[in-house]
Design brief:
The complex is a heterodimer of chains A (about 230) and B (about 150). Chain A is mainly alpha-helical and about 230 residues long. Helix content of chain A is about 80%, strand content about 0%. Chain A has one domain. Chain A contains nine helices and no strands. The longest helix of chain A is centred in the middle third of the chain and has 39 residues. With about 150 residues, chain B is of the alpha/beta class. The longest helix of chain B is centred in the N-terminal third of the chain and has 26 residues. The chains are: A mainly alpha (about 230), B alpha/beta (about 150).
């Protein structure tokens, strides 16, 4: 069913549907992503500085914050936000469509609901999630620089050059991007499935929304950590 | 919202994503598009590297002039063989230059410091620095100090 939904997609007449979904899932999530990215970056810099300055190694602040944001927190936290903001909206929407029998009436009219409803959402999540994660990391690093360099007075040169020395594109940045792509896929996949599979009652929609989010939170926090210590 | 403005906003969103990727690539990870400055290789052998790794700095008078490109073990001389890549505009390293493994600060990372010699001949690509100083390992120093005490 999943492959069916994905492979049906690359048709140009369905492109507007994807664009609308990117707008609803991605663009409307930008504000919470950017806000939390900024505050997490700022907090990391503040607390990291307080610990590092005891050993006189506050110049490592930039590197530490950048690695943590790009590889770990960026993909995972923005995925959790995305699951809460967009994933549950997808589940609720599809669940309500099912409860009000819109899906069955589409079938009656000969419209393929997988193609019309499911696959634009899958593709939109797949496209929007990495972009949100990248924005999260950039804003987080900016927030960290603002707190660390402008406010706490870490030497600017050491902050940025330490970061550029320690972070490599292929090793660290790509790892973060791959993570966020996988998360985007899993979030929308779980959300769409839960919506499609829910009991066609208002109670069923409520529990499907919660379940979809819980599944992802377990998956995301579980798998977000494991690839790193083993250098996968 | 009108479909047209949705499309524009989505376009801006994707552009912002590409921009973020560019910022991360260039500003954060120091990614450069193959325009690496040309460099030449110089070898040096050390008794003990003491934590020197690939990508460690090579500096003269504290100015970074290159990086450690390769670390291997030489089975003939039973020492560590280090290949350094030095920027090609630094072309006046005399053959009697000393290469020492130093530490940044008390607990920082290891780097190679070159102190230039007086010889008129300069090292060329693939040349070797004979005069080397291994890393100072703190534990060994403490051990020696304790031995002297008793």
């Amino acid at each position: 069913m999943w492959w069916h939904a994905i492979w049906r997609k690359p048709e140009w007449k369905n492109w507007p549907l994807i664009v609308t979904q990117i707008y609803r899932l991605g663009v409307l999530s930008v504000v919470i992503t950017v806000m939390s990215g900024f505050s997490i970056g700022a907090v990391l810099a503040l607390q990291g500085y307080n610990q590092l300055v005891r050993y006189g190694s506050e110049s490592a602040l930039g590197l530490g914050v950048a690695l943590v944001l790009v590889m770990e927190i960026g993909p995972v936290v923005s995925a959790l936000l995305f699951a809460g903001r967009a994933g549950s909206a997808i589940t609720a929407e599809i669940g309500l469509m099912k409860a009000t029998e819109q899906l069955s009436s589409m079938e009656m009219m000969g419209v393929d609901s997988l193609q019309r409803i499911v696959s634009p959402r899958l593709w939109a999540g797949f496209i929007a999630m990495p972009i949100l994660a990248l924005m999260f990391s950039v804003v987080g690093i900016w927030g960290a620089a603002l707190v660390g360099v402008e406010w706490l007075g870490v030497y600017e040169g050491a902050f940025w050059s330490g970061m550029q020395d320690g972070v490599t594109f292929s090793d660290h940045v790509l790892k973060g991007i791959v993570k966020s792509v996988v998360f985007g896929l899993v979030i929308t996949w779980v959300a769409v499935f839960e919506g499609y599979d829910c009991q066609a009652t208002s109670e069923g929609i409520a529990s499907a929304t919660t379940r979809g989010r819980c599944i992802f939170v377990c998956f995301g926090t579980g798998t977000g950590f494991f690839p790193d210590p083993y250098h996968v | 919202m009108q479909p047209r403005s949705i499309e524009i906003v989505v376009g801006a969103f994707i552009l912002a994503g590409i921009l973020s990727l560019a910022i991360i690539a260039f500003r954060v990870s120091g990614f450069n598009l193959g325009n690496e400055t040309s460099s030449y290789s110089v070898y040096a052998r050390f008794e003990n590297l003491g934590g020197l790794v690939v990508r460690s700095k090579v500096s003269i008078s504290g100015v970074v002039v290159g990086r450690v490109a390769e670390v291997s073990f030489d089975h003939e001389t039973l020492t560590a063989l280090v290949r350094m890549e030095i920027d090609s505009d630094i072309n006046q390293i005399s053959t009697d230059t000393t290469a020492a493994i130093l530490t940044e600060g008390l607990l920082g990372g290891k780097y190679i410091g070159l102190s230039l010699g007086a010889e008129e001949e300069f090292v060329t690509d693939g040349g070797e620095l004979i005069d080397t100083q291994s890393a100072i390992v703190l534990e060994e120093l403490i051990g020696q100090f304790l031995l002297k005490q008793f």
